[in-house]
Amino acid sequence: MAPGRVLIFVQHLRGIGHLQRACVLARAMTDDGLSVEVISGGMPVPGIDLAGIPLHQLPPVRSPDDTYTRLVDAAGQTADGSLRRARIRAMLEILQAAKSDALLVEMFPFGRSQIAEEIISLIEAARSAHPRPLIVSSVRDIIATKRSDARYEEMADHVVRWFDAVLVHGDRGLLPLEESFPPAGRIADILHYTGYVLAPTPAKGTSNTGTHDGEVLVSAGGGAFGAALMWAALDARADPALGRALADAPWRLLTGPNIPDDDAARLMARAGPGVIVERMRPDFRHLLARARASVSQCGYNTAMEVMEAGTPAVLVPFGQGRQTEQRRRAAALARLGRAEMLAEADLTGPALAAALNRAAARTRRPQESGPGIDMTGAATTARLMRRWLAQRHSEKTGRLTSSA
User: Fold this and answer.
1) Based on the domain organization, do 176 and 209 belong to the same domain?
2) What are the backbone angles phi and psi of residue 84, rounded to the nearest 5°?
3) What is the pLDDT of residues 321-359, one digit of tens each?
4) 277, 242 in Cβ contact below 8 A?
5) Environment class of 333 (CB within 10 Å of its CB; exposed 0-12, middle 13-18, buried 19+)
6) What is d(CA 367, CA 196) in angstroms, rounded to the nearest whole number?
7) Which of 55, 113, 142, 219 is deepest in the core (most CB within 10 A)?
């Protein structure tokens, strides 16, 4: 039987989306017959669903702000050399013990330059192993804007030097990689679009009790950047121009686990009758499917869950400075006619109320109705990985193919 052991490395720095996506991929590969282990370098996330897949937690680091120029440890102290060396030692020990047939590295070299030394150490160790595992980069649909053209070319150099394949978890018809990564043509022969990665819809029986149909659902993903959206939502609900059906509906604000405690407490104190403020809900997608309207940022996971549900939506993408990922995604979905987009710079209560009125006038359009977006990313990734490992096991040479 062909070998099928995969080791995934993932590092989330602020939000939790990267870890969530890696976990979805791990579960899909396990369901497809591969043996998977995950290394996480970010802060532990309670309730993360790995369905029994081994998770190796490194001494965690995170970014304390949205500049991503400094990393701190779990206690908020600057991540020093000794911590970095401890993380490298731990990763190499896990790699040696796992004896994996493939190493899947999330985001690098398209991001995670803050921990490049650690990731390169892991890759170089994998390349020195006998037999050498397949080395794959796993990247979302959009690459964050870089300081210079030279930085993009350096990233492409790293791909050519270290990687056998790059999995792009997006739909080329919606957002081709070259729009955010100009030298994509240099690595076109090893680029493989998988479609967007979306976890299977949870069974309806897992939904919490006490929910309401027809809610206005306001969500902020992990919540690190969501406080302004929550305050604007409360202002929008009170705006006299808001449509009566929206104003009379129950509103549910999901702040995310990473919102500062003080902000969460103030929101709860201000929420009046008909407004529920919660950190998270395990049945978010069921709430979304029943909601009258959705207001959210435009992180990868949330955006695709909104598209799947077809709920009339307002997307308020987070984006400051070079953080253009959410703006690009929201603009593409708005062009497709799948959502209203409200720029973060224009976020006020009245502006959000007006956007909600426009969104509510749309017909609910679930993902299966056109125009469609490829959301087969988890299953396609699993099939590709299994095919490539079988190909290497049979000692067939040549280019890894996208045929799954």
Assistant:
1) no
2) -60, -45
3) 567 899 999 999 999 999 999 999 999 999 999 999 999
4) no
5) buried
6) 12
7) 219
pLDDT of 404: 54
- CA gap 313, 294 in Å, rounded: 5
Q: What is the pTM of this model?
A: 0.89
Same domain? For 291 and 340 the reply is yes
Residue 173 lies in a domain: yes
Sheet holding 216-219, edge to edge: 275-278, 251-254, 216-219, 293-296, 313-315, 340-341
In a domain, 403, yes or no: no
The alpha carbon dihedral of 6, 29, 26, 300 has a sign of positive
Domain containing 167 equals 5-197+375-393
